[in-house]
From TrEMBL:
Gene3D superfamilies: 3.40.630.30. One of its GO terms (cellular component) is ribosome. PANTHER family: AMINOALKYLPHOSPHONATE N-ACETYLTRANSFERASE-RELATED, AMINOALKYLPHOSPHONATE N-ACETYLTRANSFERASE-RELATED-RELATED. CDD domains: NAT_SF. It comes from Neorhizobium alkalisoli. Transmembrane segments: none annotated. Coiled coil: none annotated. This is Ribosomal protein S18 acetylase RimI-like enzyme. Keywords: Acyltransferase, Ribonucleoprotein, Ribosomal protein, Transferase.
Length: 168
């Protein structure tokens, strides 16, 4: 399948929700169980939350689109109080499209969207070894750990990774 990376629009919200729901369950059910993952998806990936990210100034929301469906999504935004740092909030690829370079292509585009940034940061759930390995291949290194991934009181520990961005 050939995907083209483009900026997301409000018309993509439901397709994005579908990708996030499918991908979250495939990625996190083994660690947290389907019930907790369903709660995470419901609160973190509501239509309103996705729309707000798409419309956010200082943010970039991308989708990989094959003309019929969305195979992956990526969202990054400038980090509050750290003007040279961008936070990669989401980079998810539909399970059926994984291993085809979709995540790498979305990331490559996101890297160019913040010309003044020097560092990109991402938080990876501690148990998500596959994602950790993916980010290492992209040039990220572990810089810290945290107890609460995704939301306060989540009880989900995470690894914080960073990558120095090439000067533009």
């Amino acid at each position: 399948m050939v995907y083209f990376v483009r900026t997301a629009g409000e018309e993509d919200v439901e397709k994005i929700r579908s990708v996030l729901t499918e991908t979250f369950h495939a990625s996190y059910d083994p660690f947290y169980g389907p019930e907790q993952v369903a709660r995470m998806v419901g609160s973190w990936h509501s239509a309103g939350a996705i729309k707000a990210r798409i419309l956010k100034k200082d943010g970039e929301f991308l989708v990989a689109d094959d003309g019929r469906s969305i195979g992956g999504i990526g969202y990054a935004a400038k980090y509050p109080k750290m003007d040279k740092t961008v936070m990669l909030h989401q980079l998810y690829v539909r399970p059926s499209a994984q291993g085809e370079g979709v995540g790498r292509d979305i990331f490559a585009e996101l890297e160019t969207c913040f010309p003044d940034a020097e560092i990109m940061r991402v938080e990876v759930a501690l148990q998500n070894v596959r994602a950790f390995s993916f980010y290492e291949r992209l040039g990220f290194v572990e810089v810290d750990r945290m107890e609460e991934w995704g939301a306060p009181n989540s009880g989900l520990p995470a690894i914080i990774m960073e990558k120095r961005l090439a000067s533009h």
